[in-house]
Amino acid sequence: AQSVSQHNHHVILSEAASLELGCNYSYGGTVNLFWYVQYPGQHLQLLLKYFSGDPLVKGIKGFEAEFIKSKFSFNLRKPSVQWSDTAEYFCAVRSGSGNTGKLIFGQGTTLQVKP
Amino acid sequence: NAGVTQTPKFRILKIGQSMTLQCTQDMNHNYMYWYRQDPGMGLKLIYYSVGAGITDKGEVPNGYNVSRSTTEDFPLRLELAAPSQTSVYFCASRRESGYTFGSGTRLTVV
Description:
Chain A is mainly β. Chain A is about 0% helix and about 50% strand.
C-alpha cells in the first residue's frame, strides 16, 4: 500500500531562517505529488504540486519543492520564512494509475516561526 | 461560487447517537472524498465517490456510511458515535488535477 512519511513533526524556526521539510513516499509507479498548508483554524490550501516535467516546482508564497525520483522524495523548501508561515504542512501523494484520485497524506509537520 | 460547503462546523455528540455530516459542492465535480484529521496522524481517507451512485471505502471506513444520490451531495453518516470518532472531518471534491477542500466539521463524542 502507498504511504507517505514526513520526517519532521514539529519544527521551530526564527524569521528569515531557511526551511526544508522532508517527505518520502512508498510507491514505485507514476505519482502525482502535493504539498498543502493548513493555517490555524482553516482548511487545507494547495501550496504546490508536481505531475511531470521540471522536478523543481515553484508554488505560492515563495515555497518550492524538488522531486527526486531515485529517492522517492518531494521535500518542501523556502529560503526565508516569515512569522505568517506558522502553520501545519502536509505532503500528499496520488497514484498516477487509475482514476479514483485518492490522496494519501503524510502525518503533517507543524511549523512554528518565532518573530 | 461557494466551492465545497460542510455543515455543521461544530458538533458535540453523546456516545451512541447518530448524525450526518453534510457536504455539498457546486462545481459539478465527479470525485468527492471524506477525510478525518487527527493530531499527528495527518488526514485519513474514510470514503470516496467517483460519481453519483458510486461509493467505495477508503483507509478507515469502519463506523461510517456514505451515499451519493446526486453529483452535488456526499453526506457522511455516523450511526453509533464512539469517542474514537472525535476528530475534524474534511470533505473534498476533485476535477482533473485540482482538489477543493471544505472548511471542516469538528466533531466531539462524549
